[in-house]
């Protein structure tokens, strides 16, 4: 189970409810907010997330992980259910996004997403899992997404790992 920090006092953690429970009518979801105090844990209760809020995706151009999220959004037909903030590395767009995200994430990396007010995540697989729950369309059944993940993306990750190993071998030689 993934824990995510909320904005606000550092004692707030969000524990996502399992997908089956989260699948409610419309685009509503539930979250249980757990307040962790020095003396123990107290359950604040169930809160409904706003129907008016659209998740915000922060996607960097030429990023293979961002492309993975973008392909899912397009193939699932959920482009109208999210707001996408695109930017190119080294531009004003990036310099405005990083400080905004650093206030909510331990490490700013891309893709990143604000899934609910004050709730940010930044792993492509986590983002896609949340978007799957919102759209009701499983990534496993998406042909283009699966072709990218098992093809070009997989090859890129293999080449990246080989590059890291070569750099480590060269540094130790």
Structure explained in plain terms:
With 173 residues, this protein is an alpha+beta fold. It folds into 2 domains: 4-48, no CATH class; 56-145, Glutaredoxin. Helix content is 40%, strand content 24%. It is built from 5 helices and 8 strands; from the N terminus they run E-E-H-E-E-E-H-E-H-E-E-H-H. It has helices at 19-22, 64-76, 92-102, 124-135, 143-172, and strands at residues 4-5, 12-16, 30-37, 40-48, 56-60, 83-87, 112-116, 119-121. The strands form 2 sheets. The protein has a 4-stranded antiparallel sheet with strand order 1-2-3-4. Helix 2 (64-76) packs antiparallel against helix 5. The N and C termini lie far apart (41 Å).
Overview in brief:
By secondary structure, the chain is α+β, with helices and mostly antiparallel strands. 40% of the residues lie in helices and 24% in strands. Helix 2 packs parallel to helix 4 (124-135).
Helical amount: 40-55%
Largest sheet geometry: 4 strands, antiparallel
Q: Would you give the CATH topology of the largest domain?
A: Glutaredoxin
Structural class of the helices, strands and pairings? alpha+beta
Average pLDDT rating? 76
Q: What percent strand?
A: 15-25%
Encode the helix/strand succession as letters: EEHEEEHEHEEHH
Q: How many helices?
A: 5
Task: Count the beta strands.
Answer: 8
Instruction: Return the CATH class of the largest domain.
Output: Alpha Beta
Q: How many domains make up the 3D coordinates?
A: 2
How would the global form be characterised? globular
Q: Determine the N-to-C terminus distance.
A: 41 Å
In the CATH hierarchy, what is the architecture of the largest domain at level 2? 3-Layer(aba) Sandwich
Cα-atom radius of gyration: 18 Å
How are the strands ordered across the major sheet? Answer: 1-2-3-4
Instruction: Identify the CATH homologous superfamily of the largest domain.
Output: Glutaredoxin
Instruction: Identify low-pLDDT runs.
Output: 1-49
């Amino acid at each position: 189970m993934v824990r995510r920090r909320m904005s606000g006092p550092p004692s707030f953690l969000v524990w996502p409810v399992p997908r089956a429970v989260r699948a409610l009518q419309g685009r509503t979801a539930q979250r249980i907010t757990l307040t962790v105090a020095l003396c123990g844990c107290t359950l604040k209760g169930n809160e409904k997330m706003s129907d008016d809020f659209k998740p915000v995706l922060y996607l960097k151009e030429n990023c293979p992980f961002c492309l993975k999220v973008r392909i899912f959004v397009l193939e699932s037909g959920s482009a109208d259910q999210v707001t996408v903030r695109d930017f190119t590395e080294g531009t004003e767009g990036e310099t405005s996004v990083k400080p905004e995200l650093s206030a909510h994430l331990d490490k700013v990396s891309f893709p990143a997403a604000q899934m609910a007010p004050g709730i940010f995540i930044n792993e492509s697989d986590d983002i896609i899992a949340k978007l799957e729950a919102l759209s009701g369309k499983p990534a496993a059944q998406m042909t283009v997404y699966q072709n990218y993940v098992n093809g070009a993306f997989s090859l890129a990750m293999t080449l990246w790992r080989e590059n890291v190993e070569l750099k480590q071998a060269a540094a130790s030689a």
